[in-house]
Structures are given as C-alpha cells and as structure tokens.
Design a protein that fits this description.
Length: 230
C-alpha cells in the first residue's frame, strides 16, 4: 500500500511540473526579451582642434551617444568614421559618424588662426604707451615696425632681437628699442641685422639687462608669432 501511495505522489509531481511548464509566467525561455532599437545618435569631439589635427583618425577622441526607441540613451562603441579630415587654420571640417544604421555629422572648428586673422587682432600701441605701463599690456597683441639692430641665435632654435622702432625722419630707425623673442618655422628665411620688419605678437611687459658699460637697461618685451621682412 505504501508503494502505491509513493507512485501516486510521483505522478502528481510530474503532472504539476508539466502544468507549470505550459504557463508563460513560469517558463521565461518561451518569451525572449525585446531589444530596443537605436533611434538616433550624436557625437562629441574631445581631441585637438589646432591646425594639423586629423578629426576621426583616433576614435578615442570621439564620444558617441545613442538614443533608443524605449527612451533610454547611453554612450556606445563600435561606431565608424569613414573619411577622417585634416584641420586647417581658419576653417572647419565635418565628418560623418555612423552606428547601427544611424548617422550624424560632427563639425569641428579649427582654433588656429590664419596670418590675416592674427594680424587683425594686433594693435600698433605707441612705444611710450607700453613703456609707461608694461604690466597693464601683458598678454595683449602688439604690432611693431622697425629695424633689427641686434640679433642673437639661441641653442633652442629661438632668436633674440633688439628692434628699433623710432623713425629718424629719413627712413632709418635708431631708438625706442623693443626686445623681441621669436621661434621661426622650419625652413623660413633667416632674419639679419639691418632688416626692416613687421612684428606681430604678444606683449610680455618689459625686460631688463645689463649693457656693456654695466648699466641696467629696461625695455618693452614682445614675443613674436610672426615676423615679416619688408
């Protein structure tokens, strides 16, 4: 009798399991999760924006965020940039970013100014204006014109110039001297003493040095971005 009861209980358990297996709430395998689809994407750039940088070459510099049909969003990987582009001074580039059938245009503006743009922001302050209040003009862009009266070639590729900016009335320059530091681009022509030049750069206040006679001399200082020989 005991064996019969055990057999009946086993059959009951098996029937119960079969019943639960037919219940959709108990068997999740019969109901796979629904995956949300990508609705749109946007891209942000964190790389260099200076001239010479190639936008889209290094994907680690780009962050792509996907928005899904279920309303959620998040950063993704596996996106592509088909044609990376070179940044040039005074311009911008736009690259196409794609991810799972969706695309967006990523625009990057070059922060490097052209020569014309840089020159336009330089002010031709009078020599005495800078000499009287050198600290006030630190960091401001300054344009001077004059003659190189001394040139020093440094080991680090920079040059130190003393440039006279006062016209004697006959086309020569002899006074109101500005100290100019300059690092020329590779391959550019060498500037020599007696060259007359336009200098565009940043005022650095003033600088002091000792003359050959032991006197302390203080003059305005300018760090040049461009020097153009006339």
């Amino acid at each position: 009798m005991r064996n019969i009861i055990l057999v009946v209980l086993a059959i009951f358990v098996l029937l119960s399991c079969a019943f639960c297996g037919s219940d959709g709430k108990s068997d999740h395998k019969n109901y796979p999760a629904v995956t949300a689809k990508v609705k749109s994407i946007k891209a942000d750039y964190a790389g260099s924006s200076e001239a010479g940088a190639i936008v889209g070459k290094d994907l680690s510099q780009i962050t792509v965020t996907a928005k899904y049909t279920n309303g959620k969003s998040g950063d993704v990987t596996g996106f592509k940039v088909k044609h990376p582009k070179l940044l040039k001074a005074g311009s911008s580039v736009t690259v196409k970013v794609t991810y799972k059938g969706k695309s967006t245009n990523l625009k990057v503006v070059c922060t490097t100014e052209t020569l014309a743009q840089y020159k336009a922001k330089c002010v031709s302050y009078a020599y005495k204006t800078i000499a009287r209040s050198p600290d006030h003009y630190k960091g401001k862009r300054w344009h001077i014109y004059g003659k190189i009266i001394q040139s020093l070639d440094n080991d680090d590729g920079t040059f130190d110039f003393r440039i006279a900016t006062k016209n004697d009335g006959y086309g020569d320059y002899y006074d109101d001297v500005v100290y100019v530091k300059y690092k020329p681009a590779k391959g550019s022509e060498k500037l020599l003493e007696d060259d007359k030049v336009d200098v565009y750069g940043e005022c650095r206040g003033d600088i002091s040095y000792e003359s050959t006679f032991g006197q302390k001399i203080t003059i305005p200082a300018l760090y040049a971005k461009y020097i153009i020989r006339r």
